[in-house]
Structure formats: structure tokens, C-alpha cells
Amino acid sequence: MAGTDAAQPVPEGDEPRPGRGVPDGAAPYRGQQPPPAPADGDGAAVDEDESDDTIALRIEALIIGAERQYTPFQAARAAGVPMELASRFWRAMGFPDIGQARVLTEADVLALRRLAGLVEAGLLSEAMAIQVARSTGQTTARLADWQIDSFLEGLTEPPEPGMTRTEVALPLVELLLPELQEYLVYVWRRQLAAATGRVVQAQDDAEMVDRRLAVGFADLVGFTRLTRRLEEEELGELVEAFETTAADQVAAQGGRLIKTLGDEVLFAADDAGTAADIGLRLVETLRADPMMPELRVGIAFGTVTTRMGDVFGNTVNLASRLTSIAPKDMVLVDGALRDELTSASLAPRSEKAADEEAPAQDYRFALQPLYQRPVRGLGIVEPWLLTRRDGAGGPV
Q: Could you read off the pLDDT of 294-305 as tens digits, one per residue?
């Protein structure tokens, strides 16, 4: 629990000295205080253009938004949190060990106090609070890297000779920071609302963690060969185009993009029809782009364990195996997903049965059985080739 021990007075001389203990080569919490301005022989500050290093420190200070005044020990004590627990929180958030450098702010103290307060109030267990810190840290770290690498970098091209990218970045960050912060909160609340809606619709408590979902992988064919043939910039553009197309198609059809792995994406959907539509639309959309490689898609339906936004279990493993054996520009599904499609009248149990129906059922999908085959760790699997029926519609 948040702590009693950490709030006790520290005997004189026991508190670590500020600035001591930073490992050689370690980044002191994304930078230190800005250095003093250069001085002339009389000790007066020189009125010169700021160096890129100084501007970079000003940008960092602007983003952090508060004075660096605490060592980790002092921040933990101010928050009333044991140092050991504070260190676990910081590491879970993805922050490096910084010894006892005085680089933490009031915001760091408040974040510690909030997490520990949730534990103390019994709203979260300590393990769950660590998980909250880790999931938030991992997600926002990736977001921050993307924004700097792709977004900010593209907007800071010097407008005239002699200017550096860093000089352009400072006023840009001043303008964008409050807007991006508000936008981040807006998107998070919308996503939280959608995720909460999915959970409360679960049939029972067990389904809130272990749920029945359709899970699919989409994998670019021959990506390893492409890495040897394309320049790095071209390869990056191809991967970005693939991820953007996949994200757009998954979202448009009501699925969820779980993660991207460069040449592969993992998606999930609450029902088989949505997953089938996503798989086919991915193939159709990329097939229409002459710059894109061919695609393989595998989809399975079943019980899935969800943790920190990711999915695990035999259903996920089966979807991955189906992807590896799928023909180029084709979608393979397992027997469970096929059963879901037929029971929902989205596909016929057989083409012969569909031909005999009068009047003909308006099916969206067609399923063709392939040879049964052993799949390592999963036994004998009968894959089904998924296609659209004539007139069922292609990509939007």
C-alpha cells in the first residue's frame, strides 16, 4: 500500500545526494536542466544565437511543462510512496533508472500519488497498477516516437538557408502541443467508451477476459526478398502504406487492429461476418495497388485471452498457421469460423445446397474445403477457402 514508511523523516545524511548515481551513458530522464548561457571575460552572458542543443533543451522543458526539482528519492517521499514501489512504477512506464539526478517534477510526484492512491483505496491491486503503468507507457512511447519520426520531422523542413530543423521545431511545438494533448484525450475517451461497450455486452464474467472472437493475420508475401531489393526509404514507405491501408480497412468494417509487425498485421472482430469481410477487403484493396506485394490472410474463431490490448491463445496460433499456408491473395478460415458464417446465413453449408434452394438465399460468402493437414501443436486442421459470392460486393 502507498506508504507510511516512505513519509517518515529521513535521518540526516541518509538521503542520496542529488546528481549522484547516474550510470555512465544513461540518459538522465530525457535530459538535464539547460546549461547556463555562455559568458564573456567579465562574466556577462553573451548575446548570441542559441545553439541547437540549447533550443532542444527549451523544447524539452516546454513539453515537460514544469521545473525539474526532485530526485527520485525526493519524489517518492513527496508522493508518500515507498521508493521500491516508485521504481517499479517508473520502470513499468518505460523510464530509465537515473540514480539520484534532480530531474523529476511536480507532475511526476502527482502521477505517483495517483497510482498509489488507487491501490490504497482498493480500486486497483498493486499488480494491476503496475499493469496500467506498463500499458500506458508502452502505448504512448510508440505514439511519441511516431509523432517525432513521421509527423514532426515532416513539418520542420527549414524554410530558408541557414535555419536548422531544431530552430523551426520550437515554435511549432508551442503551437501543436496543446492541440495534440486535447486530441489524444478525445481519442482515448472514444476508444475507452467502445472497449467498455464490448465488455459490458459479454455474456458472463469469464467472457470479459476470455472471449470468443474472430482473429486474423494478414501477411505480405515475399517481404524478406523485398528488404534485400528496396532502398530503406522505399521499404519504409511500403510498410507505412500497408499499415495505413490495413488500419483503414479494419476500422471501416468495425474490427480492431491489435498490432502491426512491419509485414504483418493482427486484427480481431466480434463476429465472423465482420472478420471475413475485413480479410477479403484487405486482399481486394492491396490487389488493386500495383506497388503492393501479394497478401495472405488466415482467420480463426474461438476463445481468446486478452491482455493489455493484445490477444493470446490457440485461436491466435491457429490464425497464424492458416496465414502461413494460405495461397497468395487468398483468405483461409478454420472450421469454427465457417460454422459461424453458415449459422448466421452468411454462407451456404455447401454450393450444392445453395443451388437447390428456392428461392436462392442471398449469401455474402462462399466456402470451399481444402485438404485436411496436420498443423504443428494444433493437430489436424481442415482449412476453408473464403471468397465472395458473385455480386456480394468488393472494396469500398
A: 999 999 999 998
